Amino acid sequence: MDQGFHFIRPLWLLLVPLGPLLLWWWQRRNDPLQRWKGMIAPHLLPHLVVGDHGHWRVRPIHLVCAVLVIGGIACAGPTWELDPPPFAEDRAPMVVVIDLSPAMNAIDVAPTRLERSKQKVRDLMKLRAGGRVGLIVYTSSAHMVLPPTDDPGLMDLFLGALSTDLLPGKGQNAAAALTLADRMLDAETDPGTIVFFTSGFDDTQIQAFMRHHEESHQQVLMLAVGTTKGGPLRAPSGALVTGADGSPVDAKLDDEALQRLSDKAHVPLASITTNDDDMRWVQREALHHLAIMKDTTSTVRWKEYGYYLCYPLVLLALLWFRRGWVVRWVFVIGALGLGGLPAPAHADDWKVVDWFFTHDQQGRWYYEHRDFAKASELFEDPYWKGLALYEHARYEDAQKVFATLSTPEAKFMEGNCYARLTQYEEAKDAYDQALRMHHPFPQAQANMQLMDKLLKLAEKVPPEDEDEEYKPDKVKFDKEGKKGTGTTKIMGKLPQQVPSDVWMRNLNVSPADFLRTKFNIENQAPPPGQPTTPAKEVIKEPGT
After folding, report:
1. Other residues' Cβ atoms within 10 Å of the Cβ of residue 233
2. CB 64 within 8 A of CB 22
3. How many CB atoms lie within 10 A of CB 416?
């Protein structure tokens, strides 16, 4: 698909030559020299024609021609850039794979290759606001750090914990990371993209990438991190790595191996840049791949730049209303039109923006800018109103809105609202309705299984009959004073209240320690194909 400059509606360009042709015809028709050319001698004609023909001034015909040219270009829709889909469910899922081999500590890319890669992932999360991105790391083995999420704060938390000493083994087993990323994306409803950040490649892995290109519907992109000149290598502690002679060890980008992978396995290859052009390229490739895999061009949205030409058109419209021009009757028509409009029901709610945008369009603008409170007030479409209420954490109000709809997506969102309100039985029923309306529905199925687990956990929790803070240490029966029927509770010392900040510090666990423990456990787990402990499940949100 051509992603350079082109026009979305090129047939409108037929208006462009009409402007110069109209101007040429008008000048020829109103030129007195042309009318008297066959009647008066050419050497006398300029001297006999009265009038100042050398002075040029703006006439209505000039503005008409300019409007035809500029309006034709604007209506044709000039564009050169793909527009990311505004709907969360249209965003292509993505998994980022980061190489944690020691070479990623080289400082030929400031501050290090690994730190630059982490910053690029943060930029990608900002660029894909609302899009879901997962995270995998690998050396000799591959491990999932985070399932696909649209929370940049959560992604940043785990990105900050990544270092090259998290994984005990060395190597570049990119094929294992590719297999793990494939499993993560296979759970998604839409085809996704796998983005590798690495400074080298093992040629023995090329065959796996070639098979993936032929068999999988997931796209692979490769981003080279580093320079061919290379740079000194640092240890995870920050100290320079030195060789036997005491000189610093340099690490160079293995661009030849990456190029061989790109040529043989048809993997698009690019280098990281100092600006966000590389991440915009990743986003364009992801959307392009999604459109191709869905086998429809209607899902590709090009950014419309013709609207910017409306500004010169407005200026031309202002010049149109000049004294002596025949379009003064426009004021009369405008006055009659405004007089015939019905009076608004609430004059205090009248706004200029309502002239140009519907309430749903205004709500969409606020929704995309994450002002969910304002969006929920403006939306008239019930589904989008429910989404705005849900994102605003008004789960009860959102549930009431979704309950009025009978689509599988609405029932799925109604189940999410019940789940947020810890009403797991009602959530399970809503997911069941969504599955009956639309099958397969992986998100509803996964959340329904999660509700079953939460209900089982709730059954195991014993009821709290008494406040634990005032529970007696022991019970002594008084057999004499009250004939064996009375009891006396001997209260022990009340437990000391732990300050909330101390309690939170006790619960604070380093993400790096968590990941290190997780990776060690996974390295000791049975090989693929044998039963393993399932990963932690989460409630899937809209667009998953």
Report:
1. 22
2. yes
3. 25
CA gyration radius, the chain = 34
Residue pair 372/353 in contact by the 8 Å Cβ criterion: no
Please report the pLDDT score of residue 458 as a whole number. Answer: 75
Give this prediction's pTM. 0.48
The C-alpha atoms of residue 302 and residue 8 are separated, in whole angstroms, by 8
Bridge partners (DSSP) listed for residue 474: 490
Instruction: Please calculate the CA angle 543-134-387 and round it to the nearest 5 degrees.
Output: 20
Burial of 397 (C-beta count, 10 Å sphere; 0-12/13-18/19+): middle
Strands (E), 357-494: 474-478, 486-490
Helix axes 18-29, 60-76, angle to 10 degrees: 170
Does the pLDDT value for residue 342 go beyond 90? no
Q: Are 227 and 254 in contact (CB under 8 A)?
A: no
* Rounded CA separation 3/6 (Å): 8
- The answer to whether the Cα torsion of 151, 152, 156, 162 is positive or negative is positive
* CA angle centred on 438, ends 437 and 442, rounded to 5°: 130
Tokens of 487: 């009891």
The residue written with tokens 């004939």 in the block is 483
